[in-house]
Each structure stands twice: as C-alpha cells, then as structure tokens.
Amino acid sequence: MRHNSQNVNFLALQNPQPNAGGFVEVEAFAKINLFLDIVRKRQDGYHDIISVMQAVNLYDSLLIQKSQPGAKPVQLDINIPGLPADDTNLVVKAANLLINEYDIRHPIHIKLTKRIPMGAGLGGGSSDCAATMHGINRLFGLRIPLDKLMEMGKTLGADVPFCLYANIQGSAAIVRGIGEKLEPLRSYANYFIILACPKIHVSTKEIFAKLQLNISGNNADKSLDKFISTYESEDICKLAKKFYNIFTPVTSGLHPQIAKLIIDLQKHGALGAEMTGTGATIFAYFDNEHNAIMACNILETVHADTEFFVTTTR
C-alpha cells in the first residue's frame, strides 16, 4: 500500500541559482471519473462524453529546467526504465508544441518521476502532458492564459484540458464533448480514497468497440442532472452510492477481477466504489483515514496482484 493522503499544493519554484539556467518543479495529479456516460458517437469516429472528473492527491513529479546551449531541444529522463522518452511521449509532444508555437530557442531538460500507474484510467499521461505545458509556461514567462493552454492541450489528448484545469486552478469539473468543455464544480475536499490498480491491460479501443450504444442524446443529460443534484446536496454517503461508469459492465465482463474488487471494497467499509475511465483502476470513498487503511491492509492479502493507494481528493 502506498499512502498519499497529504494535500500537496502545485509548485512552481524559481531557481535561486541564476547561473543554473532556471527551473520549475510541478506536480501532475491523477483523476478519477465519479460519473461517466456516453452521449453519442460522432461522425468523426470519436464519442461525445459527459463526465464528472475529480483530481486526487496521487501525482507524478516533473522537474523542468533550461539546458545548456547546444543540447537537444527536449531531453526527457524518466525514473522507470524502458518507457519511451522520444517524440511519441506526451511530455515531449507538449514541450515541442510550445517550442514551435512560441519560438522557444533554449533547450529544455525534463525529469519525470512517475507514481501514477500507467494505462489504469487515472489520466497519468495526460496529466504529465498538462504539467509540462504549465511548467514551460512558467519557466519562460510566456503568460499563456489557462483557456489558451486548454485549447492547445485538447489537440494532444481528451483528458489534457481537465488535467490543465485540475493542476492549475481547480480539482473537479463536469466535462463534455470529447473532453474539451469544462464546467467547474466545488470539490468534496479531503475525503479518503482507495485506488485499487489491478495488473490488467485494458485496451480502450477494444472497450469502446464492445460498448453497445443504445442511447439517445437526452438520456445521459438526464442521468447527469440526477447525479449533480445529489452532488450539490453535499451528502457524501448519498453521492458515493450514485457513482456511475457506463464502461464498468463491459470491462468487468472481460476482467471479472474488477467486479470482485468493487464488491470487496464495499464489503470492507467503502461508502461507494466504481471503476474510473475504461479501467482497470477502481476508486472507493471512505469517511475516514483509519477505515481506508484497514480495508487496504486486508485487501492487499486477498488481491495480491493489485497495487493499492490511500489518497485524498484535492
């Protein structure tokens, strides 16, 4: 179990040693989907979604600094061996986007420390991308407003606009379209959450392909209205029972371990539990830290192939 319940603020620290070239250090926070539904399939092949996203205090760290003249334009170092650090990585793509758009001529060196499990539905790659954009914005004093960063970020990934918003300004929002339309929400702050991340590879493309869309455009909106009504009641016990993800039956049908994790978390005191994204991570809300840690300790022995985190909402 990894314990990540400390509430950490987004950092952007000016280097006290000017001759080192300057740096910023930023955190890239994971996200969960408290509510996730599909409105329709678009003609371009993408899907319009409706979601309520919440940032949590599990994060990757990025140290972004100016390199010596003559270095490669973007150098990315990652603490996990074997991960691509070339132009296919979203961090490098984000850096190159700003370099080209704002004619940045100073080489950039980025050190990425990953803690968010990859391919788990927690938005780690998108959040790293978002943090890179914000960090470079601060490092070079570009003064790009958040709405402009979000407009640029949506070209890199559907979750990037929310991650930019969550890393910089807020921590919860209603998300629509393909992820680019955000409506800020007041967050349920400092509730304790278990993130259960089974070692399962889930293909987002396969899950979307298996999803049977027997819906009209209004059904998802009506379902969201009911969820938001409960959300605004500020009753976390009622809210936790309303968590919803249209993909859960599809993904758990392919991977029964997901359904078992949801049941076991509820048996051991969770106010509510649900899958995030297309999987495979399960999140579960608890009313206090002690109960969350106790449940985590028990379930680690039952689900030995699952990584558990105890964290909080931002």
Give a count of the beta strands, DSSP E runs of length 2 or more: 12
Based on helices, strands and strand pairing, what is the structural class? alpha+beta
Average of the residue pLDDT scores:
89
Low-confidence stretches: 5-20
User: What do we call the CATH topology?
Assistant: Ribosomal Protein S5, domain 2
Helix amount? 25-40%
The fraction of residues assigned to DSSP E strands is 25-35%
Shape: globular
CATH architecture designation: 2-Layer Sandwich
End-to-end Cα distance? 20 Å
Kindly provide the radius of gyration, computed on alpha-carbon positions and rounded to a whole number of angstroms.
20 Å
Q: Tell me, what is the CATH class?
A: Alpha Beta
Describe what you observe in this structure.
The protein is of the alpha+beta class. The protein has a single domain (2-312), classed as Ribosomal Protein S5, domain 2 (2-Layer Sandwich). It is built from 10 helices and 12 strands. It has helices spanning 90-102, 124-139, 146-153, 160-168, 204-210, 217-231, 236-240, 248-254, 256-267, 289-302; strands at 2-4, 23-41, 47-66, 74-78, 108-113, 172-177, 181-184, 192-198, 244-245, 272-275, 282-286, 306-312. Strands 2, 3, 4, 5, 6, 7 and 9 form a 7-stranded mixed β-sheet that branches. A 5-stranded mixed β-sheet has the order 1-12-8-11-10. α2 crosses α4 (160-168) and α8 packs across α9 (256-267). The radius of gyration is 20 Å and the shape is globular. The two termini are 20 Å apart. Residues 5-20 have low confidence and may be disordered.
